[in-house]
Specification:
146 residues, alpha+beta, three-stranded antiparallel sheet, 3 helices, elongated
């Protein structure tokens, strides 16, 4: 059993040193704040969309009339160099803003600030009692113990 463990660790370390990928080398898609608009300017509805390209960072939106619009995944701007479709909207929809607003609505309210000490109404009776106790305590300190 020990031999199998040693052989497996030796094989893995050799593959790591040779920079041979052990698992699928495709990176996972990064989170993006932009999404395809529901329809283009010609009111053609969205049929499908692609994930952002690793190299260009653009994602494509396919609409019912056969139009394809490509948007930058970082800025949401229309990429006119890739596909020239006159019915594309100027920018993709920013979904992060909507997510933040939704989360703010679901968040618990913050605690109110505690009232300042100046907001309390002075209580003369309590102040007089404290003064009396303070004087008695000071008097007891002055009396030497026998």
């Amino acid at each position: 059993m020990r031999f199998i463990t040693t052989a497996a660790s030796l094989l893995l370390s050799t593959l790591t040193l040779m920079n041979i990928p052990i698992a699928n080398g495709q990176p996972s898609p990064a989170a993006t704040c932009f999404s395809c608009p529901d329809s283009d300017i010609g009111l053609n509805i969205l049929l499908s969309f692609t994930l952002p390209d690793i190299i260009t960072g653009a994602f494509a939106c396919v609409y019912l009339g056969g139009g394809v619009c490509s948007y930058d995944s970082d800025t949401g701007a229309l990429v006119t160099l890739i596909i020239d479709n006159p019915l594309c909207t100027g920018a993709a929809v920013n979904v992060c803003r909507a997510r933040r607003e939704e989360r703010r609505g679901k968040a618990l309210p913050r605690n109110p600030k505690p009232p300042s000490p100046a907001a309390f109404v002075p209580k003369p009776k309590v102040m007089q009692t404290r003064k009396t106790l303070r004087e008695e305590k000071a008097k007891n300190r002055r009396i030497p113990s026998a």
